[in-house]
Amino acid sequence: xxxxxQMEGPVTLSEEAFLxxxxxxxxxxxxxxxxxxxxPGEGLQLLLKATKxxxxxxxxxxxATYRKETTSFHLxxxxxxxxxxxxxxxARLDRGATNKLIFGTGTLLAVQP
Amino acid sequence: NAGVTQTPKFxxxxxxxSMTLLCAQDMNHEYxxxxxxxxxxxxxxxxxxxxxxxxAKGEVPDGYNVSRLKKQNFLLGLESAAPSQxxxxxxxxxxxxxxxxxxxxxxGTRLLVL
Lengths: 113, 114
Known about the structure:
The structure holds two protein chains of two kinds. Chain A is mainly β.
């Protein structure tokens, strides 16, 4: 079935390092893609999204480009901060009219000062 | 405007006990969802609702029931709790008529079943 696969964590980086979290998906067609972030002790919140191929989503210095050739939506940030420490979830919109999301397993990012 | 709220925040149950988790949203959203979050498994959809009075099964519905008697509330029930239902439960809501819209999540309910 349709799925989302993201790199396992934890990912540990020093402050100001470059971040990449890989995400690939399987799907029929071109579903909308999302990155959600979960800060410690909180619920998920949308970080960015892309609704069609070649779109780039961006927010708070994070970017992700919808690449249909490689069915990928990798998350990147040029210079991470300690405050970016969180769990990041890649997700795709399921088919049909219910707007269900299919999530990856999540990647824990720990940024050290 | 509180967004999506969940009660309780934390609960400990004994095996076989029952409980109801409440999700409330004040954004007049049509769609509501219940997920569970487990280590290494991401979020999995339990049940969802596309409008008041309607519910449907998600990916992992066994052992849970839901009701959507009012548009703003979505209840998740455990009739006979099992240790396998130890998890963090998240509710989310979404406005209808917004293509590829964003789901808004509550802060979660941590449930421990002994």
